[in-house]
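yo, ABC transporter ATP-binding protein is done. seq:
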Amino acid sequence: MDTFKKLKSFYWPYRHLFFTSMVLLLFVNVITVAYPIILQITIDDGITKGEYGWIPYLALGFIAVMIFRGLATFVQQYTGDLFGITSVYKLRNELYKKLQYLPFRYYDNAKTGDLMSRLTADVEGFRFFLSFGFTELLRFVFTLSICFGVMFYYSVSLTLMTMISLPFLAIAVYRFDKLIHPAFRGIRRSFGRLNTNVQENISGINTVKSLSREGFQTSKFMNSNEDFKNREISTSNIWAKYFPLMELLGNVGVIVILSYGGYLVIHGDLKPGELVAFYSLIGYILDPIITLGFTINMFSQSKASGERLLEILEADEEITDNENALQAERLTGEVEFNNVTLQYFGDEKAALKEITFKAQPGKVIGLIGSTGSGKTSITQLMTRFYEPAGGAVYIDGKKVNEYSLHSLRSNIGFVMQESFLFSSTIKSNIAYGKPEASMEDIIHAAKMAQAHDFIMELPDGYDTMLGERGLGLSGGQKQRIAIARAICLDPSILILDDATSAVDMDTEFKIQEGLREVMKGRTTFIIAHRISSLKHADEILVLENGRIVERGKHDELLENGGPYERIYKIQFRDQQAILQSQTG
Ligand SMILES: Nc1ncnc2c1ncn2[C@@H]1O[C@H](COP(=O)(O)OP(=O)(O)OP(=O)(O)O)[C@@H](O)[C@H]1O
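structure:
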């Protein structure tokens, strides 16, 4: 019940709907028990005694009871459903909000398909229980207590005899629950894996097709599907074994009524009408007892779903605003790293070691080094995507964690290696970080990013709808829109992480010409593999294995005889080779 207790804040505010539904359920149960009682009176006081005049009145009473019951059932089901739907609406919103604020570290280990199945199938499983499961559990309690009450009133000994099989039934139900709960948890996990497979396959369809791995992907999916199927089969086996057993044990009561009840009637210890009423009552009791398996099953499923939802809700947000966080309107953009170390979760060695540098406002810092040397990691500490394990990062003389995340990040324009474009218009993609931006701001940003001309050539210009992940644009065009997006923020710090790697040299040159204008008054970090992209930087930091191994201006570094010079020579040699092949 811990899961339900923890999720209480989502359904408890709507308890009035739940209690209305429950009171009506009790009412419906009481009325239901009136049927066999009316039947008993009709037989014992009407037919047996020859008082036929009563029968039309009893029939009318019966119709009235049925109408009442129908109305009560309608309202009871409606309020019960509303209870589930409204609770889950709030839960779904909360889950989505939580996902927005979870740190990058969470996503490093999470799988999209699995998260999707939590937000859909698990939420739905939980709703189903709130709407129907609770009601079914209470129906069980109400029906059993009311029916047994009436049965005891008619005959104590016959009631006790009908209860003979109940302890066995209880054992069967208990064992069923013990098996079915883990089985359902397994099904939910397996479904999450299945979703992940589909999602990854669709997202990576280019890679799959270009490497002709369709067969491999299909068999990978088939394995997951097989696992899902096997789990479903083994769960349905549990059902198949226990359901008839529970039904059989329940039916022992019917046999007892017919044999022992018949004996009592013959000896005049029970009236015939009472025996008929008994027979109907045991029918009412058996139904919830037998479906108790189904209800428990639903309970188990929703408990498993609730646990998976709680895993998201309870995940540590880690990187949040500190108390009294500063709301900096506009930073000047002085960035300082003081002996910073970074260790990613699960990694044995540090990704950054003893990083120390200071970037004055408006300066351009170039970061170069082999892949995995830590260039991106440096920039991700400025935006607080991750926290350093040692040392501190300062912006405008204050530690980055002193600012509110919003004010910090809205001062930093980040163009990533692979920026994500949403399936909406180009205009709204550019203005994504600054929704209040005017059309002039958007066009200005696009012009700076050398994107305006190609946007104007598109049929709907800035109103062109982009497909998912920017489908319909070339890699270079997507990147230019991403650059425009960062510029649109008018940030005081601009980070270009391999931002021009997807464009040709000519476009790169043009973008850089434009960026030179953009960089004015902003501290800019350029991560690049091509020396040509950062040779004008005020300071170049050369990284190797998470350490700064060289620093200085382009000309100074060329004289150093270190890694920078080596990279330059390789790239220069390549250029020479290209030129020779073109001229020669
Ligand atoms: N989210 C992460 N979780 C765990 N390890 C990570 C994560 N991101 C980066 N790393 C590791 O940290 C190290 C530095 O990575 P980083 O991305 O900063 O390098 P980089 O110099 O930007 O490389 P590239 O030029 O390929 O982009 C690498 O060893 C990488 O494997």
